[in-house]
From TrEMBL:
It is a peripheral membrane protein. Binds 1 [4Fe-4S] cluster. Belongs to the complex I 20 kDa subunit family. The keyword Nuclease does not apply. Residues 177-187 have a biased composition (Basic and acidic residues). GO terms for cellular component: plasma membrane; respiratory chain complex I. It comes from Streptomyces niveus (Streptomyces spheroides). Keywords: 4Fe-4S, Cell membrane, Iron, Iron-sulfur, Membrane, Metal-binding, NAD, Quinone, Translocase, Transmembrane, Transmembrane helix, Transport. This is NADH-quinone oxidoreductase subunit B. NCBIfam families: nuoB_fam, PRK06411.1.
Amino acid sequence: MDVTPAAPAAAASTAAPVALPDPQRLGVLSRLAPQPMKVVLNWGRRYSLWVFNFGLACCAIEFIAASMARHDFIRLGVIPLAPGPRQADLMVVSGTVTDKMAPAVKRLFEQMPEPKYVISFGACSNCGGPYWDSYSVTKGVDQIIPVDVYVPGCPPRPEALLQGILKLQEKIARESLGRRYGSEGHRPSTAALRSGLVEAPPTPTSGEKA
């Protein structure tokens, strides 16, 4: 009996890569999804928030206190200390953001995958705090990245951070990715977030020394 060798494996190895949906298509696809699926997806995001803590000053100590055994925000589905921004869903900016540190905050926020959320923790992160009139202090982290929840205080107590997390979870539970990333959304576009805030160093040519 003749056996004709099948060639799906070779065809699969040479197949063109599958194109992922761009942010413009993301909103359209989410609107077409059934409502029960949206509820399940929002429920999963709500209780599996990997946190990237951007601690800059004394408010970071209160963040650490909120993650310890006494307050234990892991019971709310919040996992602290993500390995890096590419594995995080939530950035908590706690402390004074200076103009020199602002490019780093913006660059790390851009590295986080969508959907991503930001909590501004403390008066300094919200508006500059007692240093609002300093020549070197950014007047709030919302000047460079979009913020979902503001937690006031100088510094806020750990209970305030727990309340801010609950507020964020309520927002995630009722959000629609179509409104968040569609043309009708109020968040900045990808092009706006990738503004020329951080300039890449020039690449040396072959005849120049690095």
